[in-house]
């Protein structure tokens, strides 16, 4: 491994473009390579981000001996195959959320990363936001008393287009796994894996257009969560305690403002906001760790189990989806 940790980016879509911009802000990182199924797209992406190597297939990028870490930014349905191939090639992996669409596939990646001694993490960037860390501190300190409930939603209106990745089942579309993972992640962060999962929603073209969830915990503690592609849900969080509340009024995925019992706290992100997550990957890889305690393998598996239970109750399953 060189002085700089050398990254390869698989895919050239919007999220890859945004994260790569933040990745280039880290002084001890070199974005060495990018791949796309269309070589001209990889070359254009490489030119934009000053990346020296462009490949027309991700297998060529994985065969590059100089790549240390692979960032997987393909559509959801391809995550397992690409991440598995990267780990098998001896690369550390940061994989966009959801890391896989089924629990067995995620367990397979976890097992392989541990077997090979390679770092693997699902990219739920919210977990590394300083205000989210502050939220946990506030609750642990008892500033709002005993926490009783959580409300969290993330949704927007998106015209139905069967070719759009969020409406296309073949690409792992739907609101729950793409948007709902954020509210569910907050519930897991504060309360852990729920005892009960109750979900109600609607399907359009085989994918969920909207889902409402009630997660139940011991003693009546609960979380009410929502995701939608057909309603402009407020993308915020409210945590209610016996003596007060904490509110993330907007942007729950990357909060810049939080209100604790009427007192405001702010955060000005470096870059777009992915830098804390990317720094965590670099630090853990250099330390020889296979996972991050802030977004552990066990946590990813628990969140996916909750999502899978909710999906099943609204009639959504990805078991019949295969990579083309």
Automatic annotation (TrEMBL):
Keywords: Oxidoreductase. The keyword Oxidoreductase applies. SUPFAM superfamilies: Glyceraldehyde-3-phosphate dehydrogenase-like, C-terminal domain (SSF55347), NAD(P)-binding Rossmann-fold domains (SSF51735). The keyword Signal does not apply. Residues 5-121 form the Gfo/Idh/MocA-like oxidoreductase N-terminal domain. Residues 133-246 form the GFO/IDH/MocA-like oxidoreductase domain. Belongs to the Gfo/Idh/MocA family. This is Gfo/Idh/MocA family protein.
């Amino acid at each position: 491994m060189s002085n700089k940790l050398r990254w390869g980016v698989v895919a050239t879509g919007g999220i890859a473009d945004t994260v790569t911009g933040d990745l280039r802000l880290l002084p001890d990182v070199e974005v060495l390579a990018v791949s796309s199924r269309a070589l001209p797209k990889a070359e254009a992406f490489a030119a934009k981000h000053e990346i020296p190597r462009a490949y027309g297939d991700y297998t060529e990028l994985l065969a590059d001996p100089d790549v240390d870490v692979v960032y997987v930014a393909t559509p959801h349905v391809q995550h397992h195959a690409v991440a598995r191939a990267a780990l098998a090639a001896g690369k550390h992996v940061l994989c966009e959320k959801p890391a896989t669409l089924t629990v067995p596939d995620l367990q397979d990646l976890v097992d392989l990363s541990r077997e090979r001694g390679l770092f693997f993490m699902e990219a739920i960037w919210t977990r590394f936001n300083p205000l989210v860390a502050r939220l946990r501190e506030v609750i642990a300190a008892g500033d709002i008393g005993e926490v009783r409930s959580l409300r969290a939603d993330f949704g927007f209106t998106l015209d139905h287009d069967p070719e759009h990745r969020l409406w296309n089942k073949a690409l792992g579309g739907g609101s729950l796994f793409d948007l709902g993972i954020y509210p569910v992640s907050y519930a897991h962060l504060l309360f852990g894996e729920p005892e009960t999962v109750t979900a109600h929603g609607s399907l359009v073209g085989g994918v969920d257009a909207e889902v409402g969830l009630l997660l139940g915990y011991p003693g009546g503690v609960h979380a009410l969560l929502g995701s939608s592609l057909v309603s402009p849900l407020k993308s915020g969080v409210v945590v209610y305690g016996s003596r007060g509340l904490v509110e993330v009024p907007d942007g729950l995925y990357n909060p810049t403002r939080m209100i604790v019992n009427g007192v405001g706290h702010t955060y000005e992100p470096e870059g777009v906001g992915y830098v804390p997550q990317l720094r965590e990957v670099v630090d853990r890889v250099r330390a020889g760790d296979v996972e991050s305690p802030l977004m552990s393998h066990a946590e990813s598996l628990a969140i996916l189990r909750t999502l899978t239970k909710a999906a099943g109750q609204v009639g959504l399953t990805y078991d019949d989806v295969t990579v083309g």
